[in-house]
Automatic annotation (TrEMBL):
<protein>
    <recommendedName>
        <fullName>Xylose isomerase-like TIM barrel domain-containing protein</fullName>
    </recommendedName>
</protein>
<dbReference type="InterPro" id="IPR050417">
    <property type="entry name" value="Sugar_Epim/Isomerase"/>
</dbReference>
<dbReference type="GO" id="GO:0046487">
    <property type="term" value="P:glyoxylate metabolic process"/>
</dbReference>
<feature type="active site" description="Proton donor/acceptor">
    <location>
        <position position="248"/>
    </location>
</feature>
<dbReference type="GO" id="GO:0008903">
    <property type="term" value="F:hydroxypyruvate isomerase activity"/>
</dbReference>
<keyword id="KW-0413">Isomerase</keyword>
<feature type="active site" description="Proton donor/acceptor">
    <location>
        <position position="143"/>
    </location>
</feature>
<dbReference type="InterPro" id="IPR026040">
    <property type="entry name" value="HyI-like"/>
</dbReference>
<comment type="similarity">
    <text>Belongs to the hyi family.</text>
</comment>
<feature type="domain" description="Xylose isomerase-like TIM barrel">
    <location>
        <begin position="21"/>
        <end position="263"/>
    </location>
</feature>
<dbReference type="InterPro" id="IPR053398">
    <property type="entry name" value="HPT_OtnI_isomerases"/>
</dbReference>
<dbReference type="InterPro" id="IPR013022">
    <property type="entry name" value="Xyl_isomerase-like_TIM-brl"/>
</dbReference>
<dbReference type="Pfam" id="PF01261">
    <property type="entry name" value="AP_endonuc_2"/>
</dbReference>
<dbReference type="InterPro" id="IPR036237">
    <property type="entry name" value="Xyl_isomerase-like_sf"/>
</dbReference>
């Protein structure tokens, strides 16, 4: 049975951020994720998680200056010191929130940078972050993001991500970097390549976290889009996926109004069972 995690950066936005934890729990979710926690004290978030019986499933390392266009630091030559500071910050929050997975955003490759240098910067930062995360008992996840939603993003395809994971492991040696895993967002996969069942077959063994959203529009993963998400979730069950499925979508109206698609997996008074 899929374990659904509500993405609180996109869902329940009719409430202030710190109130979304209670709203998610009331809706029947037992896990939450979001983009970034850093505008709030870790102690306050930890209290919200404990009060509402929620598991912190995932969040991202600090992305740099989001307002200025940064979408992660890992592939950016010359910003290695800032990247290392971001790893320390992310791991500090992960420890306080008892979160065992962090997503390392790759970043948007500089237009005029040497592609080989960009890739080597990414690999060096991936190795560093994985080493630090492993010492903290945390898995480091990397996620391909489609260039329609995020033009210029360094990491676009699951095959590219898997190749980089394998290369990082070779650099680390036989027992190193085993805590690097794929964050397989099936919305991004559908937007760029399609063939979701092929992606599950090929990449599930290296995947620690799944995310879903309706295509097109990134709204509810319901029957109104081009993907049969109930079938996809059944395939994940069939193949023995035991991780969380992050609901990273923007509700068309209020979050509760659009939750009927999840009635098979959520049981609460706001969604028909």
């Amino acid at each position: 049975m899929p374990r659904l995690a509500a993405n609180l950066s996109l869902m329940f936005t009719e409430h202030p951020f710190m109130d979304r934890f209670a709203a998610a729990a009331e809706a029947g979710f037992r896990g939450v994720e979001y983009l970034f926690p850093y505008e709030h004290a870790a102690a306050d978030i930890a209290a919200a998680l404990e009060t509402n019986g929620l598991t912190q499933v995932l969040f991202n390392l600090p992305p740099g200056d989001w307002e200025a266009g940064d979408r992660g630091l890992a592939c950016l030559p010359g910003r290695e010191a800032e990247f290392r500071e971001s790893v320390a910050t992310g791991l500090s929050y992960a420890e306080r929130l008892q979160c065992r997975q962090l997503h390392m955003m790759a970043g948007i490759a500089p237009v005029h940078a040497d592609p080989a240098r960009v890739e080597m910067t990414y690999l060096a930062n991936l190795h560093y972050a994985a080493t630090q995360a492993e010492a903290a008992g945390v898995s480091l996840l990397i996620e391909p993001i489609n260039p329609i939603d995020m033009p210029g993003y360094f990491l676009r395809r699951a095959g590219q991500a898997l190749d980089l994971i394998h290369r990082a492991r070779r650099v680390a040696g036989e027992r190193g970097a085993q805590n690097i895993a794929l964050q397989l967002d099936l919305y991004h996969r559908q937007m760029l390549e399609g063939r979701l069942s092929d992606a599950i077959d090929e990449y599930l063994s290296e995947t620690a976290h799944i995310q879903i959203a309706g295509v097109p529009g990134r709204q509810e993963p319901d029957a109104n889009g081009e993907v049969n998400w109930a079938w996809v979730l059944d395939v994940l069950d069939r193949d023995g996926y035991a991780g969380w499925v992050g609901c990273e979508y923007r509700p068309a109206a209020t979050t509760l109004e659009g939750l009927d698609w999840a009635s098979k997996w959520l049981n609460h008074k706001g969604v028909s069972a």
